[in-house]
Amino acid sequence: MDIVLYLGLFVVSLAVLLKAADWFIDAAEEIGLSLGISPFIIGVTIVAFGTSLPELATSIASVFAGESEIVIGNVVGSNITNIALVLGVTVVVVKEIKLHDQIWHIDMPFLLSSSFLMWFLVRDSNLTIFEAFIFLGALVLFLTYSLKSDDGDEDLYRTKVSWKSYVWLVIGGVLVWLGADYTIFAITKLSTLMGVNSEVIALSLVALGTSLPEVIVSLGAARKGKTSIAVGNVLGSNIFNTFAVMGIPSFLGRLTIPQNVLDFSLPLMIIMTILFAVMTISRRITRWEGIILLIFYVFYMVELFTK
Q1: What is the pLDDT, as a whole number, of residue 90?
Q2: Residue 251 near residue 128 (C-beta atoms within 8 A)
Q3: I need a surface site. Which of 90, 221, 234, 276 has the fewest CB within 10 A?
């Protein structure tokens, strides 16, 4: 009964976290437009950050709860899930995704670099404050390159915003924190009762749950023919996960880097990222390639719970 109780708490708190993140993002978008910020800038900052908000919130909560090994499990698991499951399901549903040539100009090189940078910095089972600054510096560099193409007139996008947007921003922020806090609490209890390491739950259940927004956004965009948004969502989310979700919690406490993540999950994440990059060389991803990604995800889940 205890397992069922805490599993229910995990589902409810994660649902609150995801819904609150939506409220926070929507309110932030409206406020941003009222300040004259262009939709493009909002997209590569607020929305891109927002898709990683659940991962960031749960990672910060895990540090405060003394379960910092969840942080890297959350990041690595979410990155694998985004590529193998989110992209895989999207391609299988829409049959084929056609890509723009620009994907190799900024996004894909940054995605590949972020994966190798993470492995290089944590391979000694430690992440220092200096290395956390490297992550955040890389994030600023990515945002700078992304924003360079925005030449819009800020007055063109300026809209009016009501006081309700500010209220929802606050409510969303508070509920994001509470949802993350209780999610980590439930994970801690479940890992104890089930005899499973908390990072395993982070690599699987938390990663799957926090990737649900990416699934919804990518499928919705692909069905409307906006396949570049679907792929860009995966790219941007993974880059933010690596740079922000690994970097920011490091300032709040020492991160524990479990050896099994270094031995299995992190190398697999790098392999999946390379596979993703290879698939994009032809500027299209086919249904068969999507099936291959889903097979990798099933293999990953099986290995995770049988190791």
Answers
A1: 85
A2: no
A3: 221
